[in-house]
Specification:
This protein has about 100 residues and is an alpha+beta fold. It contains three helices and four strands; from the N terminus they run αβαβαββ. The strands form two sheets. A two-stranded parallel ribbon has the order 1-2. A two-stranded antiparallel ribbon has the order 3-4. Strand 3 and strand 4 form a beta hairpin. Helix 1 packs parallel to helix 2. It is globular.
């Protein structure tokens, strides 16, 4: 007889802001501060961005693909050619205040 274990799969954002808050607090308790933080699009949510913004000098979080993001990407005129590992690619940055409007 074969049995299978039930494996719960939680979304990538599940308690991520809480986990990051605890990690930043622990690092701060040792006198360590994060200069640059980078994350993929799984971290692109308001609570996670607010947590990272309050604990890092600079951060990069890949945007979630959407129609409005594609439109903004098409409007970019300045692309930089960079080498990542052994691969050449072009990169550009887009400033976003999507989650920060009410914090001003």
């Amino acid at each position: 007889m074969r049995t299978s274990k039930t494996v719960r799969q939680y979304p990538v954002k599940f308690h991520q802001a809480d986990t990051l808050s605890r990690a930043f607090k622990l690092l701060h308790s040792y006198g360590l501060h994060i200069g640059i933080f980078r994350a993929d699009c799984g971290s692109c949510s308001e609570d996670i961005i607010r947590t990272v913004d309050g604990n890092c000098r600079i951060f990069y979080i890949r945007a979630i693909h959407s129609a409005s993001m594609y439109s903004r990407i098409q409007d970019i005129r300045e692309w930089r050619r960079v080498e990542m590992g052994s691969q050449e690619t072009e990169v550009a940055s887009v400033m976003s205040t999507q989650f920060m409007e009410d914090s001003r």
